[in-house]
Write a structure and sequence with these properties.
The complex is a heterodimer of chains A (227) and B (195).
Chain A lengths: L4 H14 L3 H6 L7 H29 L5 H19 L8 H21 L19 E4 L2 E3 L5 E4 L7 E8 L5 E4 L7 E2 L3 H4 L5 E9 L6 E4 L3 E5 L2
Parallel strand pairs in A: 2-9
Antiparallel strand pairs in A: 1-3, 3-6, 4-5, 4-7, 7-8, 7-9
Helix pairs in contact in A: 1-3
Chain B lengths: L7 H12 L3 H10 L1 H13 L6 H17 L10 H23 L22 H11 L2 H11 L5 H8 L3 H22 L9
Helix pairs in contact in B: 1-2, 3-4, 3-5, 4-5, 5-6, 6-9, 7-9, 8-9
The chains are: A alpha+beta (227), B mainly alpha (195).
């Protein structure tokens, strides 16, 4: 009996992720007798095993002490020197009159460009950028029992990401920021949100592809843990 | 994970401060780059030491410089160490291929794994798997990395990426399916060597 493709994937996913002995479970499943599906499951298990092996290697490399402490220190010192040489201020090559003339020329050029191409009104970060991007924190707002789940409204344009920022309700100091998110929900780790004060303020931002490219920002919401 | 291990979220904050030239953060990120030489040295050992000490230190400098130049791309989806690990392993893979070409040897050195290696991997495991992971849709690759490199549950992965655990499972399954297809293509005999 042929199993529809969607159902087949559903079964393979369940066998792969939820069974302790996927191949034995396969032989008891609707797909039993389908040699191609069994071969596919075997390959998926093999790929997962190889990833596990590489992952264990990565964790071991990070957890392990230095293989060659002297070489490690040498490499780090060399890199610090490289960074320092990059950030060291360079000696100006232009002097006096030539520098002033260059600055004046740049100013004239800049004024000319602004005259020819007047800047369009830039969206204020607090202003939603059109339909579908209105951002508003939905929870937690007001008196709440926990900060375990943060949700908000607003659609995600392609290639954009949400970031939630949490501030101290009293001082306004930033306490935390979420990683870039694709869904309208953030579940901060319990050990994170339980360290926040009882009174917080939150806002959600819509970031574009570039670093720190802010597309829109919600107004601040305030939430307090009920005593 | 030990309590002292920073979360990716804390790593992201650290990176942001370093990019803002906060000197303490800069020094902290440099200190985190200490793992680069460690990762390269360990892998070099397992591959039968194709690179000498000087060459390995040069590769470490290249990796650290590349990582520093791309810090703005770090999104806090995985730990900073995991993110650095990807750079280090991939750079070693590409350096091996460059060396292979220079010596006119087939890609995939390291047929003799060092006797001192513990649990040696197949010599070309990282060489095959890491570039294959790079070919995946980034959303799928993130889930696979978090699952196998950071050993997270699907619930934890969902929390980390702002997804439900069911969505994380579906992405994982689709990612693994896609990886299987790529690995088939990369099998010896059908393998393409690219720089």
């Amino acid at each position: 009996v042929s199993v529809p493709a969607d159902r087949r994937d559903e079964i393979l996913q369940r066998l792969l992720l939820e069974e302790s002995s996927p191949l034995e479970a396969f032989d008891r499943s609707e797909l039993a007798g389908d040699a191609a599906a069994r071969a596919e499951l075997e390959e998926l298990l093999e790929s997962a095993r190889r990833l596990d092996s590489l992952g264990a290697d990565a964790r071991a490399a990070n957890a392990r002490g230095p293989v060659d402490p002297a070489a490690e220190e040498r490499v780090l010192t060399r890199f610090r020197e490289h960074l320092a040489s990059e950030t060291r201020p360079r000696r100006p090559r232009l002097h006096g009159g030539r520098l002033a003339a260059l600055i004046a020329a740049c100013l004239v050029l800049l004024l000319g460009v602004r005259f020819l191409f007047p800047p369009s009104a830039e969206p204020h970060p607090d202003t939603p950028l059109g339909p579908g991007t209105h951002l508003e924190i939905l929870a937690p707002v007001g008196d709440v029992d926990s900060f375990a789940e943060i949700t908000w409204s607003g659609e995600l344009p392609s290639r954009a990401r949400f970031v939630v920022r949490v501030y101290d309700g009293a001082s306004g100091a930033e306490l935390a920021a979420s990683p870039p998110l694709e869904e309208n929900r953030w579940l901060p780790a319990e050990e994170t949100w339980t360290k926040w004060p009882a009174d917080i303020r939150l806002r959600v931002e819509l970031l574009g592809e570039g670093p720190d490219e802010l597309l829109a920002r919600s107004s601040e919401a305030r939430a307090r843990l009920s005593p | 994970m030990a309590d002292s291990t920073p979360t990716p979220h804390e790593d992201l904050e650290l990176v942001r401060r370093a990019l803002g030239r906060d000197q303490r953060a800069v020094q902290a990120v440099v200190e985190r780059l200490r793992c680069v030489h460690r990762i390269l040295a360990l892998r070099n050992l397992r591959l039968g030491e194709p690179f000498g000490q000087g060459e390995l230190e040069d590769i470490a400098q290249e990796v650290m410089t590349a990582v520093w130049g791309k810090l703005a791309l770090y999104e806090g989806r995985s730990s900073l160490d995991g993110w650095i690990y990807r750079f280090a392993q991939l750079e070693l893979v590409y350096s091996l291929r460059r060396k292979d070409r220079r010596l006119e040897r087939p890609a995939g050195l390291g047929q003799g794994v060092s006797a001192s290696a513990e649990e040696p991997l197949e010599p070309d495991e990282a060489e095959t798997l890491l570039p294959a992971l790079e070919e995946l849709d980034p959303d799928q690759a993130d889930v696979l990395r978090l699952k196998h490199f950071e050993d997270l549950t699907f619930q934890e992965i969902g929390g980390r990426l702002g997804l439900s655990s069911n969505t994380a499972k579906t992405r994982y399954y689709r990612g693994l399916q896609r990886l299987r297809t790529i690995l088939r293509r990369l099998r010896p005999g059908s393998r393409k060597v690219k720089p």
